[in-house]
Amino acid sequence: MQQLQRGFAVVTGASQGLGECMALELAARGFGIIAVARNRDGLDRVAEACGTLNGGRTRVIVADLADEAATHQAAEAVLSLGLPLEALVNNAGYAVWGRFPEQALDAHRSMLQVNMLAPVILTHRLLPALRQQPRSYLLNVGSMAGYAAVSTLAGYSGSKAFVRLWSRGLRQDLRGTGTTVTCVCPGTVLTGFTARAGMQALDQLAKKFGSTPQAVARSAVKAMLAGRPEVVPGVLDSLTARLMKLLPEALTEQVASSIYVKHLPRS
Ligand SMILES: NC(=O)c1ccc[n+]([C@@H]2O[C@H](COP(=O)([O-])OP(=O)(O)OC[C@H]3O[C@@H](n4cnc5c(N)ncnc54)[C@H](OP(=O)(O)O)[C@@H]3O)[C@@H](O)[C@H]2O)c1
């Protein structure tokens, strides 16, 4: 079947994991892909795979989104391609795991820059181009960790709570403009996330309850194209998220925190 040719989607954190799967999912649906991350080899590999799905309509931009100036440069690099932008997927992100005072301030700053400020900068810079299309999409990657304050992940869960609320507020700001905002809030996804955060102690648990990045990407892109405000992929995670909203906040925080604190290596 002939694939509908769509505009380009900028996907941050597209060198592996969920971002890689979202780039492939979008390419399979006819989007051109502009893949952004630091790891050029990973980006090239993903771009090649996307190219087999969308007729080679792929570009790669190497950028460190923990660096504010580099994030602005990445936005300029996207705009200078002069391609029709139809979607921006703010996916790049990671966690700093451990009790807040025991982690270096700079580690917290870099994570907050990647998880919160990079999406804000890229969205602000790319929105005028996105709005040139009659219909365009913003997809922000939050987390179920954003539904509860979590000990050992205080900065991370705070950053994902920001992503969720910012997405919903921005959606209101853009009402009636043809650009919709969707926030995907996954539970555990089987990617390089735990290794990057040094959370391997949670790997056994993750394997039991985690979702594949392919399934999460499919659900996220479907929700984005339907213009939904928020989605928690997977039946179990979606039910858990609903339960979290019903339970008293103190109880949710206690239960969520105990899972992570229990697995924290003793130093
Ligand atoms: N896995 C989970 O359980 C889970 C659950 C909920 C939400 N999430 C969210 O899902 C998103 C994707 O994570 P993942 O699970 O796919 O983890 P991952 O496999 O570790 O991938 C993270 C991606 O973010 C990019 N990234 C990290 N730091 C960056 C930086 N300074 N500049 C540019 N790109 C950077 C990485 O690219 P480079 O290293 O090449 O730069 C990589 O492509 C994140 O926002 C994460 O918070 C994950």
Strand order of the largest sheet: 3-2-1-4-5-6-7
Poorly predicted sequence stretches spanning 5 or more consecutive residues: none
Q: Given the helix and strand composition, which structural class is it?
A: alpha/beta
Label the overall shape: globular
* Annotated CATH homologous superfamily: NAD(P)-binding Rossmann-like Domain
Note the total helix count. 10
Q: Would you report the number of β strands?
A: 7
Radius of gyration (Å): 18 Å
Determine the strand fraction and express it as a percent band: 5-15%
Q: How does CATH name the architecture?
A: 3-Layer(aba) Sandwich
The largest β sheet comes out as: 7 strands, parallel
Average pLDDT works out at 96
Query: What small molecules are bound in this structure?
Result: NADP nicotinamide-adenine-dinucleotide phosphate
Give a quick summary of the entry.
This protein is an alpha/beta fold. It contains ten helices and seven strands.
